[in-house]
Amino acid sequence: MENSFLKVFNTLVGLIMVLFLSGCATHLQKITPENMVFIAEGPFTMGFAIENDNEWGDMDEDPVHEVTLSAYWMDKYEITSADFAEFLNSHQSSAQQFIEITPSVTVEFVEGKYQPRTGLENLPVNRVSWHGADAYCQWKDKRLPTEAEWEKAARGIDQRIFPWGNEFPDNSRVTFRRKFSKLGFEVMEPVDSMSQGVSPYGIHHMAGNVWEWVADWFGGGTYEDHESKDPKGPETGISKVLRGGNWYYKAYYLRTTYRFNERPDQFNIWQGFRCARPAAGGKKLLSPLRDLCVSRKIEESRFFTAFRMTRNASLSF
Ligand SMILES: [Ca+2]
């Protein structure tokens, strides 16, 4: 009798665990119709400790500090050539401020109309200025993420070095050390690909593919006297921040904390972006389960991922 009771009890406990874990999996994959991912209000650690044996990290990534962000939504994917062509066609009079069309751009201009190059519809748009990225996000009723929002979306709350964890990059996780002069558009991958390289929130290509514009002006000393709640960076500046590295760069630049910058009117082959949106008040109801599930995913990642970054690895950038 007692054994029967224990069997039933154990079965029920097992069933509850399965339901919980599958609930987490479903919840982690939950996205809005616009392919955005919810990131709950809360703190995370920003920056990189530059005093380390591998001599990784630049002065502007220091000091490491805690930042608390309000809840927000982040695009799960980089903006594609098809997305941006649609925007350009509705803003043709300003289009030349937003993108510079060359043979190495995934968008082309044919017979008075912008269109994605055939077969490249799901690749990221590239050679976009900051002004183009900013205008696109506003057109979608979104905005560029702040630098802090971008970094939290890339690394979560456990200070990981790359979006997938601390393992050294390879081309199964990230477009990495590829040359456009050799591979052409094959340096890039579709924006929804490489699921092994997603961030703790399931966001694709936070490392590699195209560098991503964010809202903030760049300041080398921004972290010295940072704001701890929803920081927005310097009030003005000369250049805007880009994050995440691109297909060409070495591991050092693919780190979640690396800060690049460029003038907002500059066009380069590797410039793309994604958008964010502040969360509406009611969405905070999702936070407790979300945090629990993300924490569980991070613990799994820690368990299964050995820290393989060696001193030799650091010599390869
Ligand atoms: Ca990217």
Task: Report what the structure shows.
By secondary structure, the protein is of the alpha+beta class. The protein has helices at 2-29, 81-89, 95-98, 130-139, 147-155, 180-183, 287-304, 311-314; strands at residues 36-39, 42-46, 65-69, 72-75, 107-110, 113-116, 211-217, 240-243, 260-262, 271-272, 276-278. It folds into two domains: 2-29 and 287-315, no CATH class; 37-281, paralog of FGE (formylglycine-generating enzyme), CATH 3.90.1580. The chain contains eight helices and eleven strands. The strands form four sheets. It has a four-stranded mixed beta sheet. Strand 5 and strand 6 (113-116) form a beta hairpin. The chain is globular and about 55 Å long.
Overall mean pLDDT: 85
Total helices: the number is 8
Give the total of domains. 2
Helix coverage percent: 25-40%
Low-confidence stretches: 13-30, 281-317
H/E series: HEEEEHHEEHHHEEEEEHH
- Give the name of the CATH architecture of the largest domain: Alpha-Beta Complex
CATH class type of the largest domain? Alpha Beta
What is the strand arrangement across the widest sheet? 9-8-7-10
Radius of gyration: 21 Å
Structural class: alpha+beta
Q: What is the name of the CATH topology of the largest domain?
A: paralog of FGE (formylglycine-generating enzyme)
